[in-house]
């Protein structure tokens, strides 16, 4: 987005679904009835529940989405779920859709879905009615099942012993995500352990079993994302045993820009589910300024039953912000709090660096937020909302397209 005014916004791309009704009771009055009280709780209608979860396969990309629908015109909620697909960068189209409900008078609402490595879809959600205290349950479907059907039996995670009598607001931050093993779903949502008491419940479930022999690299721990780098950088990786049998004396391969530079043996023993770090004896050269290096580490276990989780890749770029005759370092990069989880990001300089953009990454290299910085007297600035950031170390990176500087910060 070019905020100077040269960008354009096109009309939205519309994907037609089967008709549905997302109109529930007036906002602020609650939707879902509870036993023993006239107080209803919010079903969070009219919005997509949490986010569209994405997964890429060899022949297509897939997004899974869900939202509440009124299934009987009397504010009984079911969950409309949708899978969109495309090939490469082409337009998305509807692959399948369905409405999940059971003929028991209960509302199913505030869903959260995800997809595992085989294309199986999970759907976890809240359940409640005038006769059923709020509970957390899940269902799902296996890839290859009839399109539009959730085929896995509804399974209870926890049923609330209590109800809520004083407010309509109810847990609109439910979330399902996929584990590093690419087959375990993790789900968190709210329930009532006693009347008028909130608590979160974390659940893990899966639709496919572990493999017997399955290891993979799940992180590159070194070099750090914040350069500069030299010609003999040490590479440390994290290796995990996803399978059910112990593994030892298997090979690890190291690649730079697609070329194999080392094959070394992990001589230790990893029990099922265990992880350990390994440091390659072979170092790598990341010293060319401005070059973006792709570093990849992968396992090479003989008889590995699932190879799609073997590798981990990360890009490294050696460069610092600067102009001719100027030595600009991370010392000019500042981030300080102005309110709870609200920060001011500033790059202090009198030099014209052109368009300056920022990124904030976690220590796995995953981008948390990014954007353009505004020019001001004495440098560049922007505001950053870290409200949803977990406590931990993050990396701030600023770049003008050819050079960059970065710094680590702790978010409390």
Care to describe what's here?
There is one protein chain. The protein has 412 residues and is mostly beta strands. Helices cover 0% and strands 49% of the residues. It is built from no helices and 28 strands. It has strands at residues 32-34, 37-41, 53-56, 61-70, 77-86, 93-100, 107-115, 121-128, 135-141, 152-159, 175-178, 184-191, 199-206, 215-222, 236-241, 247-256, 259-270, 275-279, 292-300, 311-317, 333-339, 342-348, 357-362, 367-372, 374-376, 379-385, 392-399, 404-411. The chain has a 4-stranded antiparallel β-sheet, with no helix packed on it. A 4-stranded antiparallel β-sheet has the order 7-8-9-10, with no helix packed on it. Strands 17-16-19-20 form a 4-stranded antiparallel β-sheet, with no helix packed on it. The chain is globular and about 70 Å long. The two termini are 31 Å apart. The relative contact order is 0.09. Residues 320-328 have low confidence and may be disordered.
- Structural class given helices, strands, pairing? mainly beta
Order of helices and strands: EEEEEEEEEEEEEEEEEEEEEEEEEEEE
Distinct helical segment count: 0
- Radius of gyration over all CA atoms, rounded: 25 Å
How much strand content do the residues show? over 45%
Please summarize the sheet with the most strands.
Answer: 4 strands, antiparallel
**Spatial strand arrangement across the major sheet:** 3-4-5-6
In helices, the fraction of residues equals under 10%
Task: List the uncertain runs.
Answer: 320-328
């Amino acid at each position: 987005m070019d905020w100077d005014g040269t960008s354009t916004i096109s009309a939205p791309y519309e994907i037609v679904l089967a008709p549905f009704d997302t109109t529930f009771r007036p906002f602020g009055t609650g939707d879902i009835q509870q036993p023993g009280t006239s107080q209803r709780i919010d079903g969070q209608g009219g919005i997509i529940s949490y986010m569209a979860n994405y997964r890429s396969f060899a022949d297509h990309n897939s997004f899974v989405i869900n939202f509440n629908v009124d299934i009987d015109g009397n504010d009984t909620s079911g969950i409309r779920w949708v899978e969109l697909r495309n090939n490469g960068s082409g337009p998305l189209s509807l692959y399948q859709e369905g409405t999940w409900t059971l003929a028991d008078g209960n509302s199913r609402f505030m869903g959260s879905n995800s997809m595992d490595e085989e294309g199986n879809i999970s759907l976890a959600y809240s359940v409640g009615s005038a006769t059923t205290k709020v509970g957390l349950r899940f269902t799902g479907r296996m890839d290859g099942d009839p399109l539009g059907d959730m085929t896995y039996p509804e399974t209870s995670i926890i049923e609330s012993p209590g109800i809520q009598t004083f407010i309509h607001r109810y847990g609109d931050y439910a979330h399902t995500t996929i584990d590093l093993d690419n087959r375990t779903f993790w789900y968190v949502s709210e329930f009532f352990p006693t009347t008028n008491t909130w608590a979160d419940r974390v659940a893990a479930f899966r639709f496919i079993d572990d493999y017997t022999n399955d290891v993979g690299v799940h992180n590159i721990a070194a070099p750090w994302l914040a350069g500069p780098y030299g010609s003999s950088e040490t590479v440390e990786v994290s290796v995990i045993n996803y399978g059910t049998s112990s593994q030892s004396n298997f090979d690890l391969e190291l690649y730079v820009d697609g070329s194999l530079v080392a094959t070394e043996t992990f001589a230790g023993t990893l029990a099922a589910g265990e992880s350990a770090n390994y440091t390659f004896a072979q170092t790598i050269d990341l010293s060319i300024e401005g070059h973006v290096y792709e570093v990849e580490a992968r396992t090479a276990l003989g008889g590995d039953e699932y190879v799609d989780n073997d590798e981990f890749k990360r890009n490294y770029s050696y460069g610092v912000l600067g102009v001719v005759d100027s030595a600009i370092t991370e010392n000019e990069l500042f981030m300080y709090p102005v309110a709870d989880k609200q920060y001011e990001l500033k790059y202090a300089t009198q030099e014209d660096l052109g368009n300056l953009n920022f990124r904030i990454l976690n220590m796995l290299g995953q981008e948390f937020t990014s954007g353009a910085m505004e020019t001001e007297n004495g440098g560049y600035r922007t505001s950053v909302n870290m409200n949803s950031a977990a406590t931990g170390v993050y990396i701030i990176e600023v770049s003008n397209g050819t050079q960059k500087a970065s710094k680590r910060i702790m978010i409390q």
